C-alpha cells in the first residue's frame, strides 16, 4: 500500500468524525437570564446627597441585598445580574455582567455618597469562544 | 457588622459554574464553551492610580462602582471582578458509533478541561481614603482551553500585578 493511501486511511476517519460531529451537533441557540430586575435611572437620579434618607431609599429600591459598614458608615448594596448566551454548532459563549448600586449614609441616616455602575447594558450575545 | 464578601464571591462563582454546567447538558462529542463575567480592567485603565496619592473619589469616578466593598481594620477594600472560564471537551470514543454496534458497550472516552481565570482588580484605601495598594489578583493565566487533563497549569509570570 502506498504512503498516500495509508495517509488517506488515517485521515479519512478523522475527517468523517469531525464532519459527523458538526452535523450531529448542528443547531444554534440564543438565550438570556436575569437575576433581579434592572434599576430605574430616574430613581438613581432622584437620590439627593444630604437629603434622601434610608427610609426613602428602601421605599424606592426595597430592602437592600446586603448591608455593610464602611468606616462607621452604613452602606446599602443593591445588585442585579444578566446573562446572554449564544451557541452555534459546537461553539458556545456566555457573557455575564452585573449592575451595582451602593448608597452610603452619614451618621444621621441621610445619603452621603452614591456609587452606581451599569455593566449589563454593554452585554453582548456572542457564540465565538476565542479571542478577547 | 460582618462582611458579606464570602457570600457575594461564592454567588458569582456559582453563577459561572452553573452556566458552564447548563451548556454541558446539551453535550456534543466536541465543544468549546467560554463564560465571561464582566469586562476585564486592563493596565492602561488603571495606570492613573498612584498609591499614597490617589483618592477614593478619583478611583470610583474613573472605574465606576466596585463589584464588592468591604472594610478590614478601617481600610476600605474595593474589588472589580473579572472571571474568564474556558471549557473544552472531546469524546474520542464517539467515532466508534459510526463503525461498530456500541449500544451495549461503554465506549466514551472524553478528554478536556474546565479552567477559570481570575483577573480581579483590588484597590485598598487607608483610613483617609487614599490608595494604599492597587493590584490584580493572581490567576488570569488559568483561563485556557485544555485538551490533555494530566498537565497542570504553569506558574503565572506576569511582570507586575500592582500599580
What key attributes describe this structure?
heterodimer, A: 132 residues, alpha+beta, Beta-lactamase Inhibitory Protein, Chain:B, domain 1, five-stranded antiparallel sheet, 3 helices, 5 strands, elongated, B: 163 residues, four-stranded antiparallel sheet, three-stranded antiparallel sheet, 7 strands, 20% helix, disordered N terminus
**Share of residues in strands of chain B:** 25-35%
**Rg estimate of chain A, integer Å:** 26 Å
Q: Quick one: overall form of chain B?
A: elongated
For the termini of chain A, the CA-CA separation is: 47 Å
From the alpha carbons, calculate the radius of gyration of chain B and give it in angstroms: 21 Å
Whole-number average pLDDT of chain B? 83
Portion of residues within helices of chain B: 10-25%
Question: How do the SSEs of chain A run, as a string of H and E?
Answer: HEHHEEEE
Elements of chain B, N to C (H/E) = HEHHEEEEEE
Largest interface: A-B, 41 and 40 residues
Query: Strand content of the residues of chain A, in percent?
Result: 35-45%
Instruction: Provide the CATH topology of chain A.
Output: Beta-lactamase Inhibitory Protein, Chain:B, domain 1
| Number of separate strands of chain A | 5
Please bin the fraction of helical residues of chain A: 25-40%
Question: What is the level 1 CATH name of chain A?
Answer: Alpha Beta
Structural class label of chain A: alpha+beta
**Uncertain segments of chain B of ≥5 residues (pLDDT<50)?**
1-7
Domain count of chain B, please report it: 1
Amino acid at each position: 500500500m502506498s504512503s498516500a493511501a495509508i495517509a488517506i486511511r488515517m485521515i479519512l476517519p478523522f475527517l468523517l468524525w469531525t464532519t459527523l460531529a458538526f452535523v450531529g451537533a448542528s443547531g444554534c441557540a440564543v438565550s438570556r437570564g436575569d437575576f433581579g430586575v434592572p434599576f430605574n435611572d430616574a430613581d438613581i437620579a432622584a437620590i439627593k446627597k444630604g437629603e434622601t434618607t434610608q427610609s426613602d431609599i428602601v421605599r424606592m429600591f426595597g430592602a437592600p441585598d446586603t448591608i455593610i459598614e464602611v468606616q462607621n458608615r452604613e452602606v446599602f448594596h443593591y445588585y442585579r445580574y444578566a446573562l446572554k448566551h449564544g451557541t452555534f454548532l459546537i461553539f458556545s459563549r456566555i457573557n455575564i455582567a452585573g449592575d451595582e448600586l451602593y448608597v452610603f449614609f452619614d451618621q444621621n441616616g441621610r445619603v452621603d455618597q452614591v456609587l452606581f455602575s451599569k455593566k449589563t447594558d454593554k452585554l453582548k450575545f456572542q457564540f465565538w469562544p476565542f479571542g478577547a | 457588622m460582618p462582611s458579606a464578601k464570602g457570600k457575594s464571591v461564592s454567588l458569582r462563582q456559582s453563577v459561572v459554574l452553573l452556566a458552564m454546567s447548563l451548556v454541558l447538558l446539551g453535550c456534543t462529542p466536541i465543544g468549546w464553551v467560554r463564560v465571561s463575567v464582566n469586562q476585564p480592567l486592563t493596565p492602561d485603565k488603571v495606570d492613573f492610580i498612584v498609591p499614597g496619592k490617589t483618592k477614593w473619589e478619583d478611583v470610583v469616578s474613573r472605574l465606576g462602582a466596585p463589584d464588592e466593598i468591604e472594610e478590614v481594620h478601617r481600610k476600605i477594600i474595593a474589588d472589580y471582578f473579572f472571571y474568564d472560564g474556558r471549557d473544552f471537551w472531546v469524546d474520542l470514543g464517539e467515532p466508534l458509533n459510526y463503525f461498530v454496534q456500541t449500544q451495549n458497550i461503554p465506549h466514551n472516552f472524553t478528554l478536556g478541561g474546565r479552567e477559570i481565570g481570575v483577573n480581579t482588580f483590588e484597590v485598598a484605601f487607608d483610613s483617609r481614603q487614599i490608595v494604599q495598594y492597587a493590584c490584580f489578583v493572581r490567576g488570569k493565566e488559568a483561563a485556557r482551553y485544555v485538551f490533555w487533563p494530566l498537565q497542570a497549569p504553569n506558574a503565572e509570570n506576569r511582570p507586575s500585578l500592582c500599580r
